[in-house]
Prior knowledge:
The structure is a homotetramer of 352-residue chains.
Chain A: H1 25-34, H2 46-59, E1 64-68, H3 71-82, E2 87-92, H4 96-99, H5 104-109, E3 112-116, H6 125-129, E4 142-149, H7 160-172, E5 176-181, H8 184-191, E6 206-210, E7 220-224, H9 233-239, H10 248-258, H11 262-282, E8 288-289, E9 297-301, H12 304-313, E10 317-320, E11 325-329, H13 336-351
Amino acid sequence: MTDAVRRHDPEVRGFASDNWAGVHPEVLEALALANGGHQTSYGTDDYTEALQHVFARHFGERAQVYPVATGTGANVVALQALLPRWGAVITADTAHVNADECGAAEKVGGIKIYPVESPDGKLTPELVDRQSWGRGHEHRAQPLAVSLTQSTEMGTCYSIEEIRALCDHAHDQGMMVHLDGARLANAAAHLGAGLGEITTDAGVDIVSFGGTKNGLMMAEAVVVLTPERIDEITYLRMSSTQLVSKMRFVSVQLEALLAGNLWLRNALHANAMATRLATAAARIEGVRIARPVQSNGVFAVLPPEVAERLRKRFPFHTWDESTGEVRWMCAFDTTPQDVDAFVEALETEMRA
Amino acid sequence: MTDAVRRHDPEVRGFASDNWAGVHPEVLEALALANGGHQTSYGTDDYTEALQHVFARHFGERAQVYPVATGTGANVVALQALLPRWGAVITADTAHVNADECGAAEKVGGIKIYPVESPDGKLTPELVDRQSWGRGHEHRAQPLAVSLTQSTEMGTCYSIEEIRALCDHAHDQGMMVHLDGARLANAAAHLGAGLGEITTDAGVDIVSFGGTKNGLMMAEAVVVLTPERIDEITYLRMSSTQLVSKMRFVSVQLEALLAGNLWLRNALHANAMATRLATAAARIEGVRIARPVQSNGVFAVLPPEVAERLRKRFPFHTWDESTGEVRWMCAFDTTPQDVDAFVEALETEMRA
Amino acid sequence: MTDAVRRHDPEVRGFASDNWAGVHPEVLEALALANGGHQTSYGTDDYTEALQHVFARHFGERAQVYPVATGTGANVVALQALLPRWGAVITADTAHVNADECGAAEKVGGIKIYPVESPDGKLTPELVDRQSWGRGHEHRAQPLAVSLTQSTEMGTCYSIEEIRALCDHAHDQGMMVHLDGARLANAAAHLGAGLGEITTDAGVDIVSFGGTKNGLMMAEAVVVLTPERIDEITYLRMSSTQLVSKMRFVSVQLEALLAGNLWLRNALHANAMATRLATAAARIEGVRIARPVQSNGVFAVLPPEVAERLRKRFPFHTWDESTGEVRWMCAFDTTPQDVDAFVEALETEMRA
Amino acid sequence: MTDAVRRHDPEVRGFASDNWAGVHPEVLEALALANGGHQTSYGTDDYTEALQHVFARHFGERAQVYPVATGTGANVVALQALLPRWGAVITADTAHVNADECGAAEKVGGIKIYPVESPDGKLTPELVDRQSWGRGHEHRAQPLAVSLTQSTEMGTCYSIEEIRALCDHAHDQGMMVHLDGARLANAAAHLGAGLGEITTDAGVDIVSFGGTKNGLMMAEAVVVLTPERIDEITYLRMSSTQLVSKMRFVSVQLEALLAGNLWLRNALHANAMATRLATAAARIEGVRIARPVQSNGVFAVLPPEVAERLRKRFPFHTWDESTGEVRWMCAFDTTPQDVDAFVEALETEMRA
């Protein structure tokens, strides 16, 4: 029996982040399945090899999958694969790779980021064009990639047409397209489309596929969709510290997610909980839902002192101190009872 | 029930590497314990906080632990913490950070490595001095750290006195000491000493503590032993892509290993299996044990064609093509029967 | 006699950039003076040592000067000196280090830049605050420096009070202040103040001092004003490729500029030429001077087809295609006749 | 008249380094020729364009020249051009890029260096093979370039056949060849061969061409010999801080050197002075010439106390404290009288 002890109440959940959740029980099962015996390390094991087929079914026959440990790792490896040493990437200012990764892209890859202000976390061809210029001019780090986030940090989703328009626009200018899909499943669930439909088929070149926020323990992947145009991920993954030795345990998590429909079940559920929450909260006077609810996050504006009191019972993050906007995230394990209790508490605090 | 399927025979083991092994059953238990409910992400959870005390018991009250995802990540973060932007580190040429990490230290940290040829994988003050010069000379990347590996890539161990002598020597010259402890438990088990005795007490400044090769799934840690002398690991961990979001699942693995004596049981067992293997193999004519067996690895010289045939039944790596030296690694899950079957096969093939 | 041949007409000048100009005759004299005999290389020569006193007279007794080859080199070395590995710098979006150096800061130093939109190229405490947040939050590259440009890329100048307010504001928040002074002399000339008054006395921590745009051949310098707070420039200069071997020839240029008042003569002259040009051009109907003329650059809006025709006779750059804004730069060698001829041509083309 | 003052005796010379010398008078003439009027900056000026033809005459029609400010800059730009992000370069341990550039290649380019011990500063196919392995193995930074130094740091020269053999060997293994030619002219002079014969014709891919040590002020160049195989130097030069704004003044120096035979005159002279010195010194009892004199450097072993006294009159460097080996460098401006006086002093001190 393990010497580790349970240190938390497994029935307490909040709305702070989908990565505050634990892992889906099927994932623990999968880890147990993959255990025992010896398997080659660093990705030549049977689970990682099988994973190629799993991803090919979702992302198309040419897709290649490279499991990594963290989402930041996936982003940094993917962007390096797209860019020469002097390349730059255009992102929304709120993109995780620009705003939340402590400068990892700059530091590990020497990559310049051109952030574009975007009120809803989405880029458009017009927004891209604000930074897509100066080609051939050696004073300007060359904008050779665009990075989209789907669903965005603001809980919004690109439609398939929007992604296609951005990819076409980028490709026309000689830029490649990276998609940070830390919450790609939530977007697919919202759009009612397959993972490949909203990436490969729309023209995306490379994806950071996120499993962790959708019920895995720690499992992300770089998915190469247009192999003839990218450099060698294997070396980039290793030299960027992202090659996991017992990779079977990363790969089997991804298999558990994608071999069947766990990815979709989890995402649909989290999205539905967000919608339930937004719908109920919107009815409360003084609470304003600030953005379209298109995935598993709800952004709301309410009086700061109410937020303060409410947070003591259910943790969640403030998104913008100046406007009083808060973020409520639902996860695969959020229950309708969680939502209802939260809404009730919100109602009570609003009245207090 | 998970959609993942078992793809391997959990009873088949070889001698290729300790990271070909799976995870100890107690680790799966621990992961299940930590599951359920919400916990803050990125290391402020209850498991990571508790881990500080676990590490303090082993490494001393001032020790600080920062869990990371990969051993390369631990090394790169630790070395950056010790070195200014113009700093260099002296290592044995066979050190993992020099020989096996695809240039990650150079790439992520811009760190220059001064490798020193070392026949047994160990440094000595004399070997260090081959590169420890040129202080104050701006043309020379300043040697400001020494990195030891314990146990070494060659299966050898530094004695406590040897480590202390190296630390004293390094500190006298203004250098700090990093210890790559991917197999630190095996060394402690061999030396019959505690983890703190062979690190903190001997003067080491920072440790890459390895859990994965000793029965964990993926869990390593940067352990800071002399906090007043190092920079801020938190930022380095994030900007080097090594901050795991659901960190409770990394931390609980390390707790499972170190809260009781799993670390020691696993290491003693793996070491004992190596000794059993070396002892038996040494008796076979034509097989020569090439290095002292001081941890869980056995290095042997045998005819290449024998190695070739033997490898088909039990995977293992060639260490040096030119001499015919091979490496046989034992793991926490290697059984006496595995060893005996392997020795029998070796004997048969030698006679064939 | 040299085998090199004159390939250009030394009487042809335009308004494209102050770095299209050659060097002041006194600079050639100085280079000749420093020639002959042997002098130690890499900055321990008599000229470089004497330069310390020259800079101390301008920038204060604690100032330390480190000559380098290029302005980008000066910026990259200076910013690395101010920032830990995880540090970020706040700049105006138009700052040279952000917009015109092909990502050198990101690439060489792994530095994240937080650009702030600034209509006139200047920062204010309010603009700084748009990015000065997130301290202690490991997901955010820590904003630990502010970089000002004086005079700015838009030809505007900070007043001494504005610089002091920015330095105080930055220091209050634990940030240090870099000043990109590629055209510092032009700003001092405009403000009627000494070089130290507008930097050291106003609280600046480190300066990239520009000589090249003010009549030197190639000579820039990192000037450290608050030595107790910065890392070791010597190593950064070398490891960033900026250590010039025959440094006496860089240092003597800077001496020629700063030992007497060549710096001021050149700057006053270039500024006066810009004022002359702006004053005359403003009188022409259809030409609008777009920004305050506070150094040696004039920004004007005129019909694109006029600009096109005019440019054939006098080269100059378009600043903003969308608005038709152009930039006319004056240099130390611009003559009143040059200006008058240009204005006449402008007038003619406007009428055509 | 310049405010700079002469601070040294232009008749005092020593034997410390060829970069302690000043510049050849023809270079000052050339700088004056290029002065005056306006010329486009950053390398589109008439002098830089003409330089292409000058280099093409020496290095072949396909050669492309990119002037830079420092030799370290040339090396770092050239190596980045040859290597992907995960590439490594094999060098002699004494190579400048490994031993004397403060880790610039690692820091700026993230490049791993595999140094090979080489007693005479030269590589051979056999020495290259000590590190040329592990292709396709993601744990090993991929050895994809070899860097030679000609003449070497030890004053030795590769023959044309040796270079060709190394290039063939490298190319056969998929590696490209960089040649650090900080003293390429001295090697060509020694070999009695053209600059192209010992580089382009022998199979070298890219050269760091040095002008500074051969009588220029500060002028080096990256010379691309096999353009179809390298990346875009322009961006690398800028992002590595090496783009000089008033580039006409770098280019005209290189023109002064290479348009006629100044390069050869200077190199032949410096080499002859070294031979004169070595020949005379060899006759003195107790002095041993330690290495073949194949360029402008003499390595000698003499009693340390003699070296100490002698150095007070004529500066020179100790090469190896442990053996008492010293280095005497001759420059383009070393006179026979300098040599004779030095030898006489040496003789006197040996007898003292």
